Automatic annotation (TrEMBL):
This is UDP-glucose--hexose-1-phosphate uridylyltransferase. Residues 48-205 form the Galactose-1-phosphate uridyl transferase N-terminal domain. Belongs to the galactose-1-phosphate uridylyltransferase type 1 family. Pfam families: GalP_UDP_tr_C, GalP_UDP_transf. Residues 218-364 form the Galactose-1-phosphate uridyl transferase C-terminal domain. Its EC number is 2.7.7.12. The keyword Ligase does not apply. Keywords: Carbohydrate metabolism, Galactose metabolism, Metal-binding, Nucleotidyltransferase, Transferase, Zinc. PANTHER family: GALACTOSE-1-PHOSPHATE URIDYLYLTRANSFERASE. InterPro entries: GalP_UDPtransf1, GalP_UDPtransf1_His-AS, GalP_Utransf_C, GalP_Utransf_N, HIT-like_sf. It comes from freshwater metagenome. It catalyses: alpha-D-galactose 1-phosphate + UDP-alpha-D-glucose = alpha-D-glucose 1-phosphate + UDP-alpha-D-galactose. GO terms for biological process: galactose catabolic process via UDP-galactose, Leloir pathway. GO terms for cellular component: cytoplasm.
Amino acid sequence: MKQKLSGSVVRSDLKLSDGRTISYYDSKEIERSAQDSRGDEAQPGIGHLRLDPLVNEWVSVASHRQHRIFLPPKELCPLCPTTADKKTEIPDSDYEVVVFGNRAPALTTPDANWELPIISGLDTPNADAAGACEVVCYTSDHNTSFAKLSVQQIRTILEAWKDRTKELSKLPYIEQIYPFENRGEEVGVTLSHPHGQIYAYSFLPPRIEKMLDAANAHLKKTGRVLLDDVIAREVKDEKRIIAQNAQWIAYVPFAARYPFEIHLAPKRSIADFTEMDDAQSDLFAPIAKEILARLDGVFGIEMAYIASWYQAPVRSGRDSMRLHWQIVSVRRQPGKLKYLSGSESGMGAFIMDLEPEQSAEQLKAVKL
């Protein structure tokens, strides 16, 4: 099945041998028909959710993930294209961008009558770990990174994020959609091929609940959107802005938690990817490449990072929460990482050794 998306991107859907859907995203019309010739392999069973009653937070228990692939050599990478000598998750011999269901998902499709239990303290029952976990392969080139991709390639990735947000939002059990990328073994990467993931939760994760509470309170008090006012302060202060164009603005946040932390937001605020227009889409790739190049340029090495897309929940906060990208790096010096201290891990109370303004100056000083 083919579908035309914005930006001249075409999505082609096929089936893998175990029944999972694989979607190819191409910047032009390409016939995608390669069949997965691997033997059928049963998908792992669904995990379950348990409530931590001390904080009323859901924990996903997925023991089948213990045996997932861990840092294979390039010649065994499951995210590279299939060759005559190696069958991978991508049956075709080449690709631009592909998305498919994780082979060892923490969250997956539940029964038709699934409902999240009502929280009732110690009496809260377990529930199947409903949701979706998808892999987004950014490129067939194993030896590159997001920052080094072409503007067109990043636009294609963006269309995949937009399309998957739209499609996953249709599922009745999905509450929050979270595209993200981990880069570097320092942040727990298990596959070095350039890729990201999308987690679609059947509940609101704790950080989203806190962000939603803050956004709703600000809207009620002022009648304005919180992220709009945050950006207005950055524009007024000027000193933490590291890049901008007609549609996007990038800055080190006023209360950054990590030595190097960059937030990127559209100047016309939108609730989620489904509201992004062509003007915003066209100008995302150039500024994304710039800020990631600045991050890598601080110490002249590829920086490990976690890049997280925050957007409004599927069914709430549409008038108060706004889409933006948060990129945080645990690297504080060329040979030193920021390890979370007892205060940060145990209490969630962060301590920043470097003033955000200093971090912003270092990022701005990078020669591109």
